[in-house]
Specification:
This protein is of the alpha/beta class and 252 residues long. The chain has one domain.
Length: 252
């Protein structure tokens, strides 16, 4: 017999002895019994999603915030010449598209054709959300969208419910709301829209399915803000003053 064959037989014998020893240890519980490939339970789709969210949730939220800011910025840039006025809607409750459309139509009655295209168009930027919603991604996106408006000169008018008014009033001790116009409600800071023609139009459009509490239109204070030196800020500020003054006079 050749030396090569002799070595092979010796190695096979050693391997067999080693395998036999391991088998006895597994039978005695000293070594774990390996699972067969068919016995390995694959991770479920739900478990994969849960694990992905656990390890990547902050990355996902960051991507959503950045995407929301980009989407809002791009939309405003594209639509800048199409709207004579933009009004920010901030409520801690869901507001339907039907209600928003009715508000826009009423606001257009008090807005001039500032861009000179022969039409008056008002856009409401919807930042309202249900505060009791379990959709945290939606709340995060709407909150980010709302914060972005404070960097935009066009966003001078806000329609807010009582909860948002309280938050608004607490910021900088009420310094975010312009009280120089002498509006009839909330110490000159707001115009209560409840019971007005705008409110009636919204109730009719939604079949009465709208908030029962007071809600307001306010004008943000530009002086001393981060956007006070931005181009066209005075123009948008003047337009907002004209619109809210006309509404205040009409709703007396």
């Amino acid at each position: 017999m050749s030396d090569k064959n002799h070595d092979k037989i010796r190695r096979d014998r050693i391997k067999s002895q080693h395998d036999l020893i391991e088998l006895k240890k597994m039978q005695q519980g000293q070594l774990p019994i390996p699972q067969k490939p068919s016995e390995v339970v694959a991770e479920s789709f739900k478990e994969k999603n849960e694990n992905f969210w656990f390890y990547n949730k902050y990355k996902v939220l960051a991507i959503i915030i950045v995407a929301a800011i980009l989407a809002i910025t791009i939309r405003q840039c594209i639509n800048k010449e199409k709207y004579d006025c933009t009004v920010v809607l901030s409520m801690k409750q869901y507001v339907s598209e039907t209600a928003i459309s009715a508000m826009e139509q009423q606001l257009e009655l008090y807005c001039d054709d500032y861009d000179g295209n022969g039409e008056v168009n008002v856009m409401i930027i919807d930042c309202a959300y249900d505060a009791d919603s379990y959709d945290q991604q939606l709340i995060m996106a709407k909150s980010t969208k709302y914060q972005v408006q404070f960097t935009s000169p066009e966003s001078a008018l806000f329609i807010i419910d009582q909860a948002s008014f309280n938050s608004f009033d607490e910021l900088m001790e009420g310094g975010l709301m312009d009280d120089s116009i002498g509006l009839p409600d909330c110490d000159g800071k707001a115009l209560d829209l409840k019971g007005t023609a705008l409110d009636q139009a919204v109730l009719e459009a939604t079949g009465g399915n709208f908030i029962s509490e007071d809600y307001y239109i306010v004008k943000r204070k530009i002086e001393g803000s981060a956007i006070s030196n931005k181009k066209s800020v005075k123009e948008y500020n003047q337009q907002a003053t004209e619109i809210i003054t006309k509404m205040s006079q009409a709703y007396k």
